[in-house]
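Cont'd.
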Amino acid sequence: MSEVSEVSEAEWAVWRTFYAMRRQLDRALEDQLQRDAGISGPDYEILLSLFESPQRRMRSRDLSARIGWEKSRISHQVTRMENRGLVERSECEDDLRGTWIGLTTEGRRAVLGAMREHTTAIRNLFFDVLTPDELASLRAVSDRVLGAINPPLCDEAS
Amino acid sequence: MSEVSEVSEAEWAVWRTFYAMRRQLDRALEDQLQRDAGISGPDYEILLSLFESPQRRMRSRDLSARIGWEKSRISHQVTRMENRGLVERSECEDDLRGTWIGLTTEGRRAVLGAMREHTTAIRNLFFDVLTPDELASLRAVSDRVLGAINPPLCDEAS
DNA sequence: CACCACTGGTTGATGTGTCAACTATCTAGT
DNA sequence: ACTAGATAGTTGACACATCAACCAGTGGTG
């Protein structure tokens, strides 16, 4: 299953550039959020999910499923955000184990202040510098890499 | 400079896939290092740099320049790794402010145990699923995104 | 009902990353 | 030689991410 697995110098050069791009893109978007709305990337993910939710509130477990974080990460993040007044917790009537996470006025203000500039940043740093062909190529590549990561599971036997 | 900045639904779909790929690729490689050598990604970056250095040791500032981390991050990471016996600090004769970071026997063992499998993982999850054209496209795209992030600086005037 | 596995969520410990403040040394201009 | 400013590195505080342990409520099945 695993061959000799050589990687040429030219391939390493692509890998390093790709790696640098991923790091710097994350950083640039993080900086933009901090600058324009005083929030972090994780803050934004939570706030955006709540904002797009019909009731402006979600169950912790649904946030977890939507964003793809484990439950303890949600809980810690929400605690920090609650302390800053961006969200608020409330009890769940239906299921006494549950917790609602709701957007506060402050949280709503923050996400509204962040969205436009964030979208602009993604457009400027990403979409604007890609040709349609490259965009299609990147989509195909991303799908294939994801496929390689997540168990092809056609043959799990060892 | 900033237009209306709309992003179509198709574009968002590409963005989300690209985003998921970046996260999951990081995670998969991190897991592989942990599994095969009991080290983290940051550990590996330090260890590999030291290993590829002629003397198997580097000045903190050179590590910083090579990996692209700020000095305090290097210092914290080295402290943790020193506690686990992967690296060791020693004084610098030439410059009394300086510190050498050297690979220990344990550190050498760890990096040797990690390298082969890490390379294989990168090949399996990345290079093997890209065509030569896609690789070239990705290289071009990465360069252009990096160019967009780092100040074109041709016209900084406001 | 009684039991038991599961689910929803919190908490604490540890590792990671950033920023600001600090110490110590080096270097250059005078 | 003196001194101002740059450089090298450490430290502490805080935000973030993961893991394991835990508690409480839910929902079967006997």
